[in-house]
Amino acid sequence: MDTMWSIWFFVLGTVLASFGAVVGYRLPKGMKIGTERSQCDTCERQLKGYELIPVLSYLAFGGKCRTCRKKITFLYPAVELLTGALFAFSYIKYGFSAELLIACSLIFLSSIIFVSDLLYCIISDKVMIVFFVWFFVLLFITEYRGWIDAIGGGLFGFCFLFILAVVSKGGIGGGDIKLMGVIGLVLGFQGTYFTLMIASITGVLVAIVGLMLKKYTRKTAIPFGPYLVIGAMVTYYYKAELLALLFS
After folding, report:
1. How far apart are CA 136 and CA 116, in angstroms?
2. Contact residues for 138 (Cβ-Cβ < 8 A; gap 6+)
3. CA distances from residue 235 to 67, 76, 232, 245 in whole angstroms, order as listed
4. Where do the Prepilin type IV endopeptidase peptidase domain residues begin and end (predicted)?
5. Residues 146 and 203 in one domain
């Protein structure tokens, strides 16, 4: 039974990630979410239902549009696969609990951020407002974290990146600041600290590798949102282990 539920959560994760990719792709472009049919960016042909099956459609058509054969970015199936895997892992780790609902909500947010920030370096205010309200409601209903810790984490994450943005004269985007406020509400003060630490280390390492491989220059704008959500997910799953490592 646990295996079947894990599979079900994997499928659910891929489906939600597919929708999250649509949100992440359309909102920064000012497109409507529910009323416009998906289409190929190159030939503008409306896609059929069987072309929108998460992961499988990408594999079936070789990662290309069925009509114009234009290559489709691997970002979409990668996000779908990763989201499905994390949904299944969350079920295995937490079972049916409030922790599972919070984890899946955080993963879903991450799928949207990955697409929008990597493609456009934009994190939508509308997305941030929706998830802030959603996590605030979950906090009220489930009391997954103490109010002082949750609000303190949100303020710490928001203010820290805000000050960093001022000092760096725009080196941090407004979307990153708001995202960290939402993440802080979920993870609390200690979780926010670990998230910022992991995100900073990961971002610096990627930047160094990019410079060495000449993929980046010193003026290349590198989206920070994906590293923040990576740090948030690692912290959410392994906060106890990180605390033990820190104090050891």
Report:
1. 23
2. 98, 101, 102, 105, 144
3. 43, 24, 5, 12
4. 105-208
5. yes
CB 108 within 8 A of CB 24: no
Phi and psi (nearest 5°) for 114?
A: -55, -50
**Number of domains into which the chain is organized:** 2
Nearest to 115 by CA among 9, 16, 219: 16
User: Which residues are CB-neighbours of 22 under 8 A, at least 6 positions away?
Assistant: 33, 38
> Tens digits of per-residue pLDDT, 36-87?
667 666 666 676 666 677 887 888 877 777 777 778 788 889 999 999 999 9
Domain that holds residue 94: 1-119
> pTM of the predicted model, to two decimals?
0.91
| Pair 63, 71: CB distance under 8 Å | yes
Sign of CA dihedral 54, 55, 60, 66: positive
Neighbour-count burial for 170-203, b at 16+ CB within 10 Å, e otherwise: eebbebbbbbbbbbbbbbbbbbbbbbbebbeebb
Same domain, 166 and 197: yes
Tokens 């947010």 belong to 109
